[in-house]
Amino acid sequence: MAIPNIKLSSGHDMPQVGFGLWKVDKAVAADVVYNAIKAGYRLFDGACDYGNEVECGQGVARAIKEGRVKREELFIVSKLWNTFHDGERVEPIVKKQLADWGLEYFDLYLIHFPVALEYVDPSVRYPPGWHYDGNSEIRPSKASIQETWTAMEGLVNAGLSKSIGVSNFQAQLIYDLLRYAKIPPATLQIEHHPYLVQQELLNLCKKEGIAVTAYSSFGPASFLEFNMDHAVKLTPLMEHDTVKAVADKYDKAPSQVLLRWATQRGLAVIPKSSRQETMVSNLHCTDFDLSEEDIKTITSLNQGIRFNQPSNYFPTEMLWIFG
Ligand SMILES: NC(=O)c1ccc[n+]([C@@H]2O[C@H](COP(=O)([O-])OP(=O)(O)OC[C@H]3O[C@@H](n4cnc5c(N)ncnc54)[C@H](OP(=O)(O)O)[C@@H]3O)[C@@H](O)[C@H]2O)c1
């Protein structure tokens, strides 16, 4: 089946449905990626922080070697971790990440979070995570987003990434970035689901020509394993009466309705699933259309509830990045 593309401001096409690699266990990541390519996925959303780039690259290499896909048909995304924001750290870590994947370039490389932390050498710990000592200490770095973005622009000029973008940024910082960017961010990746619809941020991106990718499209589902209070207490979106009623109407799975709601709002989606049948049904989420009224009904479930923020994972007084 043909997956629609989104035209990025960089001139490149990005598939509107891709595959998320967060929490894909190293032990199975190569097979998961290989099977996802077999199922028809072409975009893979990785990151240094996911700790599985070597294995994901092995899955890609196997698919290419068997002639199932060519490199240029894939769209590989990776992200700059917080400890590599200092300008001189950006290119070396991207080269390491490319070597881990076994690739010569990324299609898209994102600043993972607008948070600069002190450098941790990969020989000390990789991926470094949030804490300087690997345990509890948060050590900021002085790198500004301008310094980091200038180094990100260098990646495009050096042919290491075709497009560059940001993740977990909000409006104020995007306005600022646009003032000095020589290459504007092609995409913004954000948490987006019916409990967190972020309409104003989407309006800004539309106006500025920044494509938006939704992560955690199933809302609480991805955060249950962390025992986050509000994730556990909320009605799971796939079991929500409103979502189920819409799904019944179109004879689709609630998961497909959640993905279609996002893609009809203009976003790209990158659902993660380790199960083959689920992976396939998630990919097949653009071959039907919800009515405007059904889209509005789902949008009205908004509660402004965010799951993916540092303070939900560990106690900290230093990382109120969505405040
Ligand atoms: N930029 C960022 O800061 C950031 C943050 C979070 C995520 N992301 C990216 O976005 C991707 C997607 O987000 P996510 O992994 O948080 O969550 P997600 O895709 O919304 O949800 C994944 C969870 O839903 C389950 N699931 C998937 N499809 C399903 C279906 N059709 N029916 C029932 N259950 C289903 C999966 O279980 P099974 O695996 O068992 O199927 C998994 O527990 C990530 O993998 C990552 O690439 C980026």
UniProtKB/TrEMBL annotation:
Site (Lowers pKa of active site Tyr) residue list: K79
Keywords: Carbohydrate metabolism, NAD, NADP, Oxidoreductase, Xylose metabolism
Alphabetized InterPro entries for the sequence: AKR, AKR2D, Aldo/ket_reductase_CS, NAD(P)_OxRdtase_dom_sf, NADP_OxRdtase_dom
SUPFAM superfamilies according to UniProt: NAD(P)-linked oxidoreductase
Active site: Y50
GO biological process entries: D-xylose catabolic process
Protein residues bound to substrate: H112
Record domain NADP-dependent oxidoreductase: where: 18-302
GO MF entries: D-xylose reductase (NADPH) activity
Pfam family, one: Aldo_ket_red
UniProt pathway: Carbohydrate metabolism; D-xylose degradation
Protein family per UniProt: Belongs to the aldo/keto reductase family.
PANTHER family named in the record: ALDO/KETO REDUCTASE
Name of protein: NADP-dependent oxidoreductase domain-containing protein
